[in-house]
């Protein structure tokens, strides 16, 4: 009970902090990171599914949606802790897109997806592998996780590789100091992996 209260308070404070940062435009620079979004779209296009259903966790103000022209997607659901970011995303009226304010750690999807994207968000979360195991249940058979990690984060890529199949790993460099590791992982069904899913 006490632990839950502490945890909820921590994430309430984080929500306020993200909202504040969005309100003063601190994250507006993400719009300039076109190489990162383009590479993610490249990986999406390489997936064999038709009429893709995509879940973008920690979607911010929907920057990725601007790059989806030419992608064969049925719809994309963006989820973010920040109501400021989500209001901004909704104002853009992106096609086939829906946005929800929620904490990734609490959010329960109502359906399954072909691709789940963690674009610059996984390392902000507690107990990352537990979160991935939970979300893997909301992937269609043979579905994919896509990750973008600022600074590549070989440690995280290695940890994820121990449970899921690394299919592609790209390093995107914007400058000497700014670069990302962008990866595509195939997720076998839990039965095939014989791993716990919670
Ligand atoms: C660095 S930004 C990346 C935004 C977006 N993916 C992009 O690349 O344009 C990280 C985002 O994760 C969101 N975030 C952080 N913790 C979250 C959580 N627990 N649940 C949902 N969103 C979260 C923040 O509000 C923020 O919008």
Automatic annotation (TrEMBL):
Tell me the InterPro entries matching this sequence.
Answer: Methyltranfer_dom, SAM-dependent_MTases_sf
CDD domains xref list: AdoMet_MTases
Q: Which Pfam families match?
A: Methyltransf_31
Does the keyword field hold Cell membrane? no
Looking at the record's lineage, which domain of life comes first? Bacteria
Q: Does the keyword Zinc-finger apply?
A: no
Which is one GO molecular function term here? methyltransferase activity
Give the Methyltransferase domain ranges.
50-171
Q: Which UniProt keywords apply?
A: Methyltransferase, Transferase
What protein am I looking at? Methyltransferase family protein
Give the lineage.
Bacteria, Pseudomonadati, Bacteroidota, Flavobacteriia, Flavobacteriales
């Amino acid at each position: 009970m006490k632990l839950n209260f502490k945890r909820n308070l921590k994430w309430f404070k984080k929500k306020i902090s993200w909202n504040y940062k969005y309100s003063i435009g601190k994250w507006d620079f993400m719009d300039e990171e076109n190489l990162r979004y383009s590479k993610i779209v490249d990986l999406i296009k390489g997936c064999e599914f038709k009429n893709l259903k995509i879940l973008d966790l920690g979607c911010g103000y929907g920057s990725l949606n601007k790059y989806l022209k030419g992608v064969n997607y049925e719809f994309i659901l963006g989820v973010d802790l920040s109501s400021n970011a989500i209001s901004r995303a909704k104002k853009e009226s992106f096609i086939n897109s829906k946005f929800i304010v929620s904490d990734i750690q609490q959010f329960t999807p109502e359906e399954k997806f072909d691709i789940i994207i963690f674009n610059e968000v996984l390392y902000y979360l507690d107990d990352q592998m537990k979160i991935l195991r939970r979300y893997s249940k909301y992937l269609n058979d043979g579905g994919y996780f896509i990750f973008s990690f600022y600074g590549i984060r070989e440690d995280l890529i290695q940890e994820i590789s121990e449970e899921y199949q690394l299919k592609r790993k790209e390093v995107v460099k914007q400058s000497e100091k700014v670069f990302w590791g962008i990866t595509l992982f195939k997720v076998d069904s839990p039965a095939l992996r014989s791993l716990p899913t919670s």
